[in-house]
Design a protein that fits this description.
This protein is α/β, with parallel strands linked by helices. It has one domain: Phosphoenolpyruvate-binding domains (TIM Barrel, Alpha-Beta Barrel), CATH 3.20.20.60. 40% of the residues lie in helices and 13% in strands. The protein has an eight-stranded parallel barrel, surrounded by eight helices. Helix 3 (49-55) crosses helix 11 (289-310) and helix 10 (258-271) packs across helix 11 (289-310). The chain is globular and about 55 Å long. This is DUF7916 domain-containing protein. Residues 8-314 form the DUF7916 domain. Pfam families: DUF7916. InterPro entries: DUF7916, RibuloseP-bd_barrel.
Length: 315
């Protein structure tokens, strides 16, 4: 079994859920996930945020704020539209979001461009909350996840969504029924998201028992009161329940100095994380690219980081 930083383009395009899990385990805590907001113009003109995150060392790319009813990734789907032209150009852009496009295989098309495992956030927001329908965890959207060809779904909550642990648990159960064994399910909270933080190891174990393949927790130092010891306790419970553990940087510290990222990365590795996530709150919907690389170097060194970067499109 290859380790994740040894995978080439064809591996990312063909590996199935069980193989991905085994690959992450074989990598011994050296897997990097980067989250990117795709609903804003990218940090670098002409290059999408997912492509940029991949080029700086990420193995998995999570698309945040993607509307599954009208999927659109800035830097990819706006190709050929000059956004500097003003209103007419934006009108052209909006016409492409009218729901008439064939969205089957959409994520696979993104994978062909980015060359990484591709996932999407879905949020089990409370009933009655005014929230975009294409971003809510629903049966319809879960069916779209399969249709579009995503490798994984992340059940979590963006800031001020009011997502609760009960909502996440029900969301996992619903997702497992619809996604079956074709798509990885990752679930948990990286911050309060307008409700409560989730620290209780037993709750995290419940997420795994409900069907989550990976359970996410705040990385040490990212949420008030979460230190190495607490993170270690949470991860031990997740592993005991049979799931992978992912530590997350989702409190805008992805825009901190590289030294901060390195400390968080090493503490997360000490705690036993299988996957380390870095969020999207740097500039324009992506962590500072140098911080993605800093996290990668901290947990797997320059040799494997540069290999990951260079293997972006290797067949």
């Amino acid at each position: 079994m290859k380790r994740i930083f040894e995978l080439g383009f064809n591996d990312f395009m063909t590996m199935k859920k069980a193989e991905i899990i085994d690959c992450i385990k074989a990598s011994e805590g050296r897997t990097v996930m980067a989250e990117t907001v795709i609903a804003v113009p990218p940090l670098v003109y002409g290059v999408s945020n997912p492509e940029l995150a991949a080029s700086f060392g990420a193995d998995l790319i999570t698309l945040n704020m993607l509307d599954l009813k009208a999927p659109f990734v800035y830097g990819i789907d706006d190709e050929g539209i000059d956004l500097t032209l003003g209103v007419e150009s934006l009108n052209q852009l909006m016409k492409r979001l009218d729901g008439k496009r064939d969205i089957s295989g959409y994520a696979r098309k993104i994978k062909e461009i980015v060359g990484r495992f591709i996932g999407v956030n879905l949020e089990p927001v409370p009933e009655g909350k005014d929230y975009p329908g294409g971003r809510v965890l629903s049966e319809e959207n879960l069916e779209r996840v399969v249709e579009m060809g995503f490798d994984y779904v992340v059940i979590t909550g963006n800031p001020k969504t009011g997502v609760s642990k009960e909502g996440i648990l029900k969301g996992i159960e619903k997702a497992r029924k619809i996604l079956g064994e074709d798509v990885l399910i990752m679930a948990g909270k990286m911050h309060a998201a307008g409700n409560e933080n989730i620290y209780e190891p037993e709750t995290l174990g419940d997420f795994a028992r409900a069907g989550a393949d990976a359970v996410l927790v705040p990385a040490p130092g990212t949420v008030v009161g979460v230190d190495l010891e607490l993170t270690k306790q949470m991860i031990e419970k997740i592993h005991k329940a049979g799931a992978l553990a992912m530590t997350t940087i989702g409190t805008s510290q992805e825009g901190a100095t590289a030294g901060v990222i390195e400390k968080i990365a090493l503490l997360s590795k000490m705690a036993g994380a299988d996957i380390q996530h870095i969020g999207d709150a740097g500039y324009s919907g992506i962590a500072f690219p140098e911080n993605i690389m800093a996290l990668s170097i901290a947990i797997r060194g320059k040799r494997h980081t540069f290999r990951r970067m260079a293997y972006s499109m290797k067949k």
